[in-house]
Amino acid sequence: MKYKLCFVLILTFAANGCDLFSVKSLPVSKPNSDKTEDVQNISKDYNKPQIIARIKDDAITESSGIVISRINKNVFWTHNDSGDDSFLYAFDSNGDKRGVFKIPNAENVDWEDIAIFHDSNKISYLFVGDIGDNNAKRDEITVYQIREPKIETSDAKTTKKNPRLTDNAIAIKIKYPDEQFDAESLLINPQNGDLYVVTKMYVGAAHIYKLSPPFAQNKTNVLQNIGEIKVANTPEGLFTGGEISPDGKRLVLCDYLQA
Fold this sequence. Notes:
This protein is mainly beta. The strands form 4 sheets. It has a 5-stranded mixed β-sheet, covered by helices on one side. A 5-stranded mixed β-sheet has the order 6-7-8-10-14, with no helix packed on it. Strands 11, 12, 13, 15 and 16 form a 5-stranded antiparallel β-sheet that branches. The protein contains 1 helix and 18 strands. The protein has a domain at 4-19 and 43-191 and 242-251. Helix content is 5%, strand content 36%. β3 (75-80) and β4 (87-92) form a beta hairpin. The relative contact order is 0.20.
């Protein structure tokens, strides 16, 4: 679950390219290491958050992830948290509705974040993270991959009762190698398509898990534990969203207080 503060921070980064720290030199500890890096003071150049849009679509009741389109000018994609069906919502920087889309073969158990990847063939894919697990009991979680729709003017008239259907999604089943976690941060490295899940921890540092393509479709993919990360807040690892910049050089994570 996310609140509007987190939404504004992620949107600001996505739109303005906030400079936090390098993805390639991500300051995390290795698994089972006694040292966990604190990223609180890595950069003092982080931009102050700015509200660039107020969403006007009443169907978006709890925006829980957001990403900028790579093929539709001035368009953002978002989705609701758990409790909604498999809908994606498009809006522009004025907050105006651009369309309601439904993934026909997906299920919203607990959608928490969305990411995007523009491949070498200039095809853009959306990745929807059904990664929430408040009770840490799910044996596996799912990331849905769909080709990003090209928005038409008529899509602004679509509704939840009459949505435009997307292509069928590829359901990427994943699981942690050690135990179950709740997570709200899904990241895609735009340079190579690597997928990252950052856990949401109420006590201690957050865990970072990675899955490199190609992603298996006929079996469950096992994530790789690549490290831990924390900030100086309390709790230290309560991350509720994140994004990697389009050039792959910067990454931002947010919690309930800041990014």
